[in-house]
Amino acid sequence: MAREGGSQLRGAELRQHILLAAKNVFLETGFERASMDAVAASAGTSKRSLYVHFESKDKLFLAVLDLVRELYLGKLMTPDAYADDPVEAVALFCGRFQQLLTWESQAQTCRLCISAAERLPDSAKAYYDAMFAVMYSRLAGYLAAQYQMDGPEAAALAEDLAGRTVLPRVFRVLLKVEPAIEDMPGTEAAVENVALEPIRKVVSATLGQRA
Questions:
Q1: pLDDT per residue over 78-110, tens digit each?
Q2: How far is CA 81 from CA 160, 165, 190, in A?
Q3: pTM exceeds 0.85 for this model
Q4: Coiled coil located at which positions (predicted)?
Q5: Which of 10, 11, 21, 111 is 20 to 30 Å from 176 by CA-CA measure?
């Protein structure tokens, strides 16, 4: 069913409205089956208006990933937003990262990018940079500042911590071995629907040696 109000929007507001509608269409139908007609109908706008903003489905898809990236990074924040104690801050940051990646909408987006990777390798890279590389960079920067580590050492430690505290559950959710989180994560620096104690144990054992 077409959304009401899309035809009344203009400029940046219409573009944002189209992107939100396109995100839902891509998630519901997959990249290959999604059509510009379906996106226009979902956005409640004309196909002509759609092409004014996005000249192809490929470019629309990349723009949707940019939108997802902005929403995601706003919710992730940086480790210092979670706690004053460095160990607890890192544990909660890793927990938040797991929460965001195992949220149903985000898991669907990840599966979508994997399915489109062969046709649109740039989209897969953009998704990795947004969802993983930025997290590693933020965590590495925090570790370097808190524990007087050089860049390469901090980067390696950040990937190691994420690999042991976050990725196992993410893979299980992506493969539907475990259920995804249904509730949308809020905007506050809070961690929900995540088992934090195992994460705290890994982080404490790793960073406790550097205190």
A1: 999 999 999 999 999 999 999 999 999 889 888
A2: 21, 19, 9
A3: no
A4: none
A5: 21
